[in-house]
Specification:
247 residues, 6-stranded antiparallel sheet, single chain, Alpha-Beta Plaits, 4-stranded antiparallel sheet, Ribosomal Protein S8, Chain: A, domain 1, Structural Genomics Hypothetical 15.5 Kd Protein In mrcA-pckA Intergenic Region, Chain A, alpha+beta
Length: 247
């Protein structure tokens, strides 16, 4: 079994648990894992599936499975928000915070997204949240004050994106990759065929795959982009598009 098969087998186990007990929750999942689970559960009616990550637009999220008659499951039952405060003159990045957490023996799968600002915030499972509050006092040489906060106290995510406006012959993946990363259409198509391109966090080998508005795609070594807006046609019959390049 490959990693994807193992993941889906585990989700089947959680689905059976939810059917028996009313609800079940996974650990934090990457965007690619979430996409694979969403596809696998599209036609299931024994349980309902949703994802929760605390932050709006969270990347790492848990899968929450519910037996349909169970009702709702509050995010507070599965997620915990932690604030990390430190002196203004100090600086902590995402890697510093994650390293300090790993040094405490915390597994990455029990941690969601980390917003590295001052104060910094992170999302985790409730047991891990209690452990962090009791044990995390510094990251490197920077002292930290840790406290649990309500999920609604989490700040809006900071997304750095540079917008690119261009015209494309169609909404095919090769055309969008070429426009986003300043490539020729032929080079973009070759990257796709070689498995260098992901669409919605999954490898896509289909050069002619149509990209929908708000979908993300990435090119290995070049970064990630999102199709933000599809406009009208130019005088030459091409489509105006607005693409956001993550920076």
């Amino acid at each position: 079994m490959d990693d994807n098969d193992i993941l889906l087998a585990h989700m089947d186990d959680l689905a059976r648990k939810a059917a028996r007990e009313g609800s079940a929750c996974s650990r934090f999942l990457t965007p690619a894992q979430q996409a694979a689970i969403s596809r696998a559960f599209t036609r299931r009616n024994d349980v309902t599936l949703r994802f929760a990550g605390g932050f709006a637009e969270a990347e790492r999220r848990v899968a929450v499975l519910l037996e349909p008659s169970w009702g709702a499951c509050a995010d507070e039952d599965t997620l915990c928000a932690i604030e990390l405060a430190f002196r203004r003159q100090d600086s902590l990045g995402h890697r510093d915070i994650l390293g300090a957490l790993m040094a405490l023996g915390i597994e990455r799968a029990t941690l969601g997204d980390i917003e590295a600002q001052n104060p910094a915030f992170l999302v985790c499972t409730p047991p891990v949240g209690r452990y962090i509050c009791e044990n995390l006092t510094q990251a490197g040489r920077v002292g930290i004050k840790v406290r649990q906060v309500e999920l609604n106290a989490l700040p809006a995510r900071t997304v750095n994106m540079r917008e690119v406006q261009d015209t494309v012959a169609s909404l095919r993946l090769d055309a969008l990759v070429a426009a986003a990363f300043n490539l020729s259409r032929a080079d973009a198509a070759e990257h796709i065929r070689m498995g260098h391109v992901q669409l919605e966090h999954q490898e896509c080998l289909e050069v002619a795959r149509v990209v929908s508005e708000a979908e993300t795609f990435s090119l290995r070594g070049e970064g990630k982009a999102r199709l933000l807006e599809i406009g009208g046609q130019s005088r030459k019959g091409r489509l105006w598009v607005t693409i956001g390049r993550y920076v």
